[in-house]
Structure prediction request, 197 residues.
Amino acid sequence: GYLHIDTGAMYRAVTLRVLEEKIPLMDSARIGALAEGTRIRLERSGGANRVYVDDRDVTREIRSTQVTQSVSAVSSYQGVRDVLVREQRKMAEAGGVVLEGRDIATVVLPKADLKIFMVARIDERVRRRKSELEAEGIPVDSGKLQQEILERDRLDSTREASPLRKAPGSLEVDTSSMSIEQQVQIVVDQAKEIAGD
Prediction:
């Protein structure tokens, strides 16, 4: 019954708007202003998470190759991060949420009750992402996809604003050889232990 908040989808939504407005990726001021004026809503519908920008369903569009190639640049700007972190904290205020993203335990909610840092081998990450994209009807080259994932990791780990890193007190879980069900079970078991169930 917890609300799942995919924070990466929020950064992708802003990136989509940047591309639609044809704002140069180096124009941090205009991108920050656009983020401030963009309304993003996450919703669970039909057993899947949907992403809306100003009441328009952009769930599929935010997974495009162009958005994927641009999201690290857009998400590196402090103005964008300030807006989205503020919104993510608002969503989390009432409790009963699961936030997923690259800076949740270090920046957004450093005092979260449960912090899990999930990792996987690059070949497995490529396989999973390729499967997701192909299920959406988006053809993809595995070699190019691997380069994109590694470059995004590099950019996210070295950016000045909220770099990707493991937070103190996080449980690291290597999901490379785990099914989704096994991954979920680890999280649920940890949550139950903290809740005293």
